[in-house]
């Protein structure tokens, strides 16, 4: 995840807060809940979670995250862009 939603000024942006919360929850489930080797962190407007051995549980969490982001995007269509890339 990168950037800002631009819905409101920093510290008051409910879209940014919702997206960040959803992404942090997904990363915590993968790293702490499933105890899958993964690197997760955030700095300089970039949040990453890279799993060493993604399995069906990780894929399910990512699918649910995308569903949640789609819900947020439906409510605030000009604030979120979702794209995928192979790593």
Largest sheet, in brief, is: 2 strands, antiparallel
Low-confidence runs of at least 5 consecutive residues:
none
- Decide which structural class fits the backbone: alpha+beta
- Count of DSSP helices? 2
Spatial sequence of strands, sheet with the most strands = 1-2
Shape: globular
End-to-end Cα distance, whole Å, is 14 Å
Order of helices and strands: HEEH
Strand content: 5-15%
Mean pLDDT: 87
Number of domains: 1
> Could you give the count of β-strands?
2
Helix content: 40-55%
Rg on CA atoms, Å: 13 Å
Main traits of this protein?
87 residues, alpha+beta, 2 helices, 2 strands, globular
Helix/strand layout:
Blueprint: H1 14-33, E1 38-43, E2 46-51, H2 56-75
Description:
With 87 residues, the chain is of the alpha+beta class. It has one domain (14-75). The chain contains two helices and two strands. It has helices spanning 14-33, 56-75, and strands at 38-43, 46-51. It has a two-stranded antiparallel ribbon.
How would you summarize this macromolecular structure in one to three sentences?
Helix content is 46%, strand content 14%.
């Amino acid at each position: 995840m990168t950037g800002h939603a631009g819905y409101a000024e920093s510290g008051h942006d409910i879209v940014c807060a919702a997206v960040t919360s959803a992404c942090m929850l997904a990363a915590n489930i993968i790293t702490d809940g499933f105890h899958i080797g993964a690197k997760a962190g955030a700095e300089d407007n970039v949040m990453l979670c890279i799993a060493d051995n993604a399995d069906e549980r990780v894929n399910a969490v990512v699918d649910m995250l995308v569903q949640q982001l789609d819900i947020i995007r439906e409510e605030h269509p000009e604030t979120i862009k979702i794209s995928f890339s192979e790593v």
